[in-house]
Specification:
This protein is of the alpha+beta class. The protein has 25 helices and 24 strands. Helix content is 48%, strand content 17%.
Length: 807
């Protein structure tokens, strides 16, 4: 029985090679696309899911109200952790993590680069699932100048030696003793330090009264809280929200700020960034929708063609019923054939996934994988999906034809009727509506990307590289700058605390004309006199810093156009701005009076997609190392001399700092990194669009082929009676073209609303033009028309004598 079933099924597949090939290819492409998109979605949803206590871990974040504006910070201050532990018994542990002392580690005479080093409290291992290979979690970070390094870092630095007890010298010039080795932190984590230094080390440099560590107004650290079992974090957030009022209300009032702390779930940190309506989770929804659209289109096409093909087998079913075949056997035959086709398509899809997944990984920037071992539900889901699609596709012929009388079947009569045609037309409209909308959305994402890249950034990023000198107090930025500037091919060099794209600290300032309790937030930079000309920035009023003015330039400041406009200064030159002295204690701020000497044209210090904010540019060459120290050297070089300049810079670097590694990057590549997310979105949309419209056209080709075959005699008679080839083509294509046109009419408003909602998340955004919608309409109509014509032309040009003989 089973052998007979497979024999009939494979005979049917061979008999209708065209329809079945189109069906298998379309469904396999749809399944492959769906699997790859879901692999990406699964990778996104796995971020931070490996922590055993992840559902009880929360980051302490802050929401500020500043003169009517709302600000969101993912950081907190150095005293929040202690306050949480002392004031709230619901908190089991509270740990702080802070930016580490650079990225350079020296052991004996060798230097190594460790890219992610953080300061951390001893209880960090009680909160996060970062198992120790060596060391006691209670003591490894208890003492100052202790360090725990990852397994990979230990291998790079110590090879096969036992690292515990060895002494490392970090970029701050201090010695740290290795007290433990931790397992490598998984890549699906928003925190991935390769080394953790004891947080108590920070107290040894400036003493316990350091403003960074004791100031409620200094938000320089990340604080994570592990709540006890059964604690409702929302109710605890209500209690935590007024913590700053309790300990720093006077300072907050004096600065004109209102601050509320809140708990942000660990597993939402990556997926739902604070202060944003869109984030990775938004794109997870979008891409899940894309996967489902592709899958539905593929399934609809598969069901359409299977159903249409079954109508050519009416007499076959009638003959089998006359010869004694029961309804049950006929149902099993049709359902089994459909499921067999689905199984073949699934196997082809798995091969396609295996071949293309590395390419998809390169597009998404994530190492994607598809393995039944990784997710236990993979195999049952694929098998269940295959059976479901096969059942749906085979159900109509199985249940409908098997219930018809042999007499009607032998005459070729079935009750298809108008309802069946309406369902099929609705399916065609639905899949081309989705395809057209995807074309529009893909085009708008591309337009937005182009628009952002064309935005005037206010500086010249070409032919510039940046050398990182770190925060080692023994390294003089001025000496490094002058040494690197002497390399042949170098136009000039400058020192700064940050670069465009990196942002910077946002601090409260009191511009002239504002009371003390109305501090204005300004993005703060610290630069030397060479920075503005080296970066190609334009001074629109006043002058640049000057080395000839000596120490007096420490009291000078340059602002951007946005700051001057926001402060209402028609003539900013000579105006004053009060700024907190970074060397003052947290107990009582000391204010420095700065004089505005120049206004620079607005430039993109953060992302080009955000609004320009007021910028405060200082010229303090002796800034404390943990604030806005000059830690970067920007080098502009002659075009076409990249290799020789890099080699010369490294040589000159080693002549003055032989023990420090030479770390550099190109400014344009670093700045353009911000476009990576939208570029990946564009690529995924583009490929999804190609898949969707390709599958839709394959399905349309199959239906047209079936229609042409069903109407072969009609076409022959029309030709005998004088119909021309174009008229016959229009006869076949007319209804399908109308359906595609209706699909466009439905797709345009849907695509517009989706695109409008997505663009609203960007402060700088492109305009949605009608030309893109017309282009999408033309593309879908042309592709659908070409698909139809491939079959219609052959039918129209066929010999009518052969058509009249067709059975």
């Amino acid at each position: 029985m089973i052998r007979h079933f497979f024999k009939l099924a494979f005979r049917q597949i061979r008999k209708n090679k065209l329809y079945n090939s189109v069906n298998i290819i379309g469904l396999s492409i749809g399944l492959a696309g769906c699997i790859m998109i879901f692999s990406y979605v699964r990778s996104e949803l796995s971020i931070d899911n490996y922590h055993d206590k992840g559902d009880r871990i929360f980051r302490v974040c802050a929401r500020f109200e500043d003169n009517g504006k709302e600000l969101w910070w993912g950081s907190s201050n150095g005293v929040t952790a202690d306050a949480l532990k002392s004031d709230f018994p619901e908190v089991e542990y509270a740990v702080r993590l802070g930016r580490g002392p650079g990225s350079s580690i020296a052991y004996e005479s060798e230097k190594f680069r460790i890219s992610r080093i953080s300061y951390a409290d001893p209880s960090v291992f009680n909160v996060f699932t970062w198992p120790l290979i060596t060391g006691n979690i209670e003591t490894v970070l208890a003492d100052p100048h202790s360090i725990v390094i990852s397994e990979d870092a230990a291998t790079r630095v110590f090879d096969s030696q036992d690292p515990v007890g060895k002494v490392l010298k970090l970029a701050d010039g201090a010695d740290y003793t290795v007290t433990g080795i931790m397992e490598n932190i998984p890549s699906n984590s928003h925190l991935r330090p390769e080394a953790l230094c004891s947080f108590s080390t920070l107290y040894t440099s400036d003493g316990p009264a350091s403003s960074q560590l004791t100031d409620w107004m200094s938000f320089n650290f990340r604080t994570y809280a592990l709540l006890r079992n059964g604690v409702d974090y929302k109710s605890l957030t209500a209690k935590v929200s007024n913590l700053t009022d309790k300990y720093a209300r006077e300072k907050m009032d004096a600065s004109g700020l209102k601050c509320e702390l809140f708990l942000h779930p660990l597993r939402d940190i990556y997926l739902r960034p604070i202060g944003q309506n869109t984030g990775p989770l938004f794109y997870v929804y979008i891409f899940t929708g894309l996967a489902l659209i592709i899958l539905v289109i593929a399934c609809v096409n598969f069901a359409n063609i299977v159903t249409a093909n079954s109508m050519s087998r009416v007499r076959e079913v009638g003959m089998r019923k006359v010869l004694g075949a029961g309804r049950r056997k006929i149902m099993i035959q049709f359902l089994g054939e459909a499921m067999l086709l689905c199984t073949i398509a699934l196997l082809v899809a798995l091969v396609l996934v295996e071949l293309t997944l590395p390419h998809v990984s390169a597009i998404t920037g994530e190492q994607l994988s598809f393995s039944a071992v990784e997710t236990f539900w993979t195999v049952p889901a694929m098998v269940g999906l295959t059976l479901f699609i096969g059942f749906i596709a085979g159900s109509y012929p199985a249940f409908f034809l098997s219930s018809s009388t042999p007499t009607n079947l032998m005459k070729g009569q079935t009750r298809t009727g108008r309802p069946r045609t309406l369902v099929r037309n609705a399916m065609i409209i639905g899949q081309f509506t989705a395809s057209c909308a995807l074309i529009v959305l893909s085009g708008i994402v591309g337009q937005q990307l182009t628009h952002l890249k064309d935005v005037d950034t206010g500086f010249d990023k070409e032919n510039v590289l940046v050398v990182q000198i770190g925060r080692n107090p023994s390294v003089s930025p001025q000496i490094v700058r002058n040494t690197l500037a002497n390399v042949p091919g170098v136009v000039g060099a400058a020192a700064s605390s940050s670069i465009p794209g990196w942002g910077g600290p946002t601090n409260g300032k009191i511009p002239e004309g504002y009371p003390r309790n109305q501090e204005q937030r300004m993005l703060e930079l610290n630069v030397d006199e060479n920075y503005i000309p080296i970066m190609g920035m334009e001074i629109v009023r006043g002058r640049n810093f000057s080395s000839e003015s000596g120490a007096s330039e420490r009291n000078a400041v340059i602002i951007n156009e946005t700051a001057a406009k926001q402060f209402g200064w028609d003539d900013p030159i000579g105006k004053t701005i009060m700024s907190i002295d970074p060397e003052s204690s947290s107990e009582e701020y000391e204010w420095l009076l700065k004089t505005v000497i120049g206004v620079v044209k607005d430039f993109s210090q953060r992302s080009v997609a955000t609004n320009i904010e007021p910028v405060y540019i200082g010229n303090d060459l002796d800034y404390p190392p943990y604030y806005n120290k000059l830690s970067l050297i920007t080098v502009r070089f002659e075009p076409d001399q990249v290799e020789s300049v890099v080699a010369g810079l490294e040589t000159n670097w080693k002549s003055i700092i032989p023990d420090e590694p030479f770390n550099y990057f190109f400014l344009d590549e670093n700045f353009d990194w911000q476009f990576g997310s939208i570029e990946r979105t564009k690529d995924i949309f583009s490929y999804a669009t190609i898949l969707a419209i390709g599958i839709a056209c394959l399905g349309l080709f199959g239906l047209v082929s079936f229609l042409v075959e069903q109407r072969t005699k009609e076409i022959g008679i029309r030709k005998v009676l004088g119909s021309s080839v174009p008229r016959v083509i229009w006869l076949v294509a007319r209804n399908f073209i109308i359906l595609v046109a209706i699909a466009n009419a439905l797709a345009w408003p849907a695509a517009y609303l989706l695109a409008k909602g997505w663009l609203e998340e960007y402060a700088v955004r492109t305009q949605i033009g009608l030309e893109l919608f017309f282009l999408a309409g033309v593309i879908t109509l042309v592709l659908a028309g070409a698909t139809i014509c491939v079959r219609a032309v052959n039918a129209a040009r066929a010999n009518p004598v052969d058509a009249l003989k067709h059975e």
